[in-house]
Amino acid sequence: MSKVRILNTPGLPNIPWQERPAGDTHDAPVWRYSGNPITGRNPAPGVARIFNSAVVPWQDGFIAVFRGEQVNGIPHVYQGSSKDGIHWNIDPEKVPFVNEKGESFLPLYAYDPRLVKVEDTYYAMWCQDFYGASIGMAKTKDFKTFTRVENPYIPFNRNAVLFPRKVNGRYLLLSRPSDSGHTPFGDIWLSQSPDMTFWGMHRHVMSSGGPWWEGVKIGSGAAPIETSEGWLLFYHGASSTCNGLVYSFGAAILDINEPSKVLYRCENFLLTPEEWYEERGFVPNVCFPCATLQDPDTGRIAIYYGAADTYLGLAFTQVDLLVDYIKNYSRTTITDEEIGIR
Ligand code: BMA
Fold first, then answer.
1. What does the pLDDT look like over 218-231, one tens digit per residue?
2. Beta carbon of 213 within 6 Å of any ligand 1 atom
3. Distance of CA 70 to the CA centre of its chain
């Protein structure tokens, strides 16, 4: 049993897992799956690459929504299933989103999906065209019918991630207001809703962090994990170099009842591109997390991340090691600590 408790999460004894390699010299307690990447090029007919994708437990295995880049270059959302969370059967058809009447309602494009179970329903959210890039959302209970719900925001916005439960009677959604291109800025914000339709009471959560690994922009990665220390949030950060952006990921812990307040924020990245599949691909030097699996009984956490906009990678951590590391290297600013309203 871990010291830090993972709360309101069913046990997941079949979580994909490998122990930390002996002699690992990385500073942060996050290590890669030795069989990475877990998807290769041309993984399904008509799909050139799968990367930034989300996974949840389903029945006796796992289900995923993938970002699949079609051979015409347009991204869409695909679905897959797996017994072990590592080897995937990918459905070559795009997820056939429908509207409330059951009619086909496909976005023009869709990328960077997340998938979060809230109450008895799974919500997928992704970036799509809404007369400009913004967030699309759909719900399903059976992974057969994905019914679109109202888009939560006007453009431009990306990286929306739901919390897995209501807080203070309201659903919560993190997002990253953006621009219409390769946004050169970006903070994480929180919005609240009584009904998953109307979103408001917006709060600033945290800003991009100074000049270093998360200096240009940040964006939520996976659904926040509820722990006895607060909401554990994995997020990506982009750094500007003379050779373009480098995407790494880090983590913060948000207040359990006021999640727009950051309690701890790790000043170090947890994972940064260094393996061939992270450094080389369609967009080099990208590690972009979109989902985690966690097992409260062991404190094990598996992190799914897109690598170089080309592959899907898997990494592991353990909640006690991770929370200690975040606290040891925590550096928060006033804009992190405050409630985020002006
Ligand atoms: C971001 C998003 C991600 C992508 C990343 C690196 O702006 O578009 O989908 O992985 O850039 O190209």
1. 999 999 999 999 99
2. no
3. 21
Listed residue (265, 263, 186, 252) closest to 224, CA to CA: 252
Residue minimizing CA distance to atom 7 of ligand 1: 182
**Alpha helices, DSSP H, located in 6-155:** none
**Ligand 1 atom showing the smallest separation from residue 182 Cα:** 7
How far apart CA 253 and CA 159 sit, in angstroms, is 18
Which tens digits make up the pLDDT trace of 39-91? 999 999 999 999 999 999 999 999 999 999 999 999 999 999 999 999 999 99
Is residue 173 a contact partner of residue 163, using CB atoms and an 8 Å limit?
yes
Answer yes or no: are the C-beta atoms of 281 and 252 closer than 8 Å. Answer: no
Stretch (H or E) spanning 219: strand 217-220
* Alpha carbon of 76 to ligand 1 centroid (Å): 14
Mutate to test the pocket of ligand 1, among 66, 125, 283 (most ligand atoms within 8 A of CB): 283
pLDDT tens digits, one per residue of 152-211: 999 999 999 999 999 999 999 999 999 999 999 999 999 999 999 999 999 999 999 877
H-type alpha helices, 248-330: 276-279, 319-328
pTM of the model: 0.98
The DSSP symbol for 334 reads: H
Report whether residue 52 contacts ligand 1, using a CB cutoff of 6 Å. Answer: yes
The alpha carbon of 112 and the centre of ligand 1 are apart by a number of angstroms equal to 8
Cβ 309 under 6 angstroms from ligand 1 = yes
